[in-house]
Amino acid sequence: MWVAFAFASAFFAGLTSILAKIGIRNTDSNVATAIRTVVVLVSSWGMVWIVGSASGIAAVSASTWIFLILSGLSTGASWLFYFRALQLGDINKVVPIDKSSTVLTIILASLFLGEGITWTKGGAIALIAAGTYLMIQKKKADGMRQPGGRSWLVYAVLSAVFASLTAILGKAGIQGLESSLGTAIRTSVVLVMAWMIVFMTGKQHTMRHIRGKELLFICLSGLATGASWLCYYKALQDGPASVVVPIDKLSILVTIAFSYFALNERLSKKAAAGLLLIVAGTLALLI
What is the pTM of this model? Predict the structure, then answer.
């Protein structure tokens, strides 16, 4: 059953990227992240009350609190870097780098969670790494420069690093804890962190200038994120992190499909080959 939750997580995560990309065209990425987190928080705690797991908060151990808080901080950092990268770069280049966190997650899961690396996993890692490299290469005929230069690449890499830490810390923090409650607690940490960043950078005043259409897409991306998280941490609670995370990263297929129709972002032949390698590597991890 955890496999179905992992695939559902991938679908909603793919929608999140597209909706967020549309919603942050003119809105500061940190403000957009903070607003999205409010939506995710409401949906997360709503699910907690629906399943009746709120009473379990009293039984959460000190070590679990630590891991959940650290996981929430990592998630917040990953979000801030990811949506800044989306604002500055091409979604077809940003998303593959973020999804390459699979490689680091597998390595960390082997070191800290005892999930060994087999020859199959090693080959899959190589495919994913090669595919990511091909997807982020600029087309020779493309003379246009991104408005943020190559800074989007730095933000995307940092997003991937913190996404990997999130998975490992989240796996450790939800042992014996109902997944919806764990997600809600982590989201609360992310909310505090996101709004602290907004006020520290003095961007809170820009909220009054957000267009209604962009606000709608930001909120929709928050709902998609909430659904993705609930499915993801349910899958992570029942299944191995080294398999759940790669399935979740298949959201790249959803993202690229929607980016083609909604944002008119087309893949080059090299990028398409890279995408096939990433998918092949991810599927190999399910063997």
Answer: 0.70
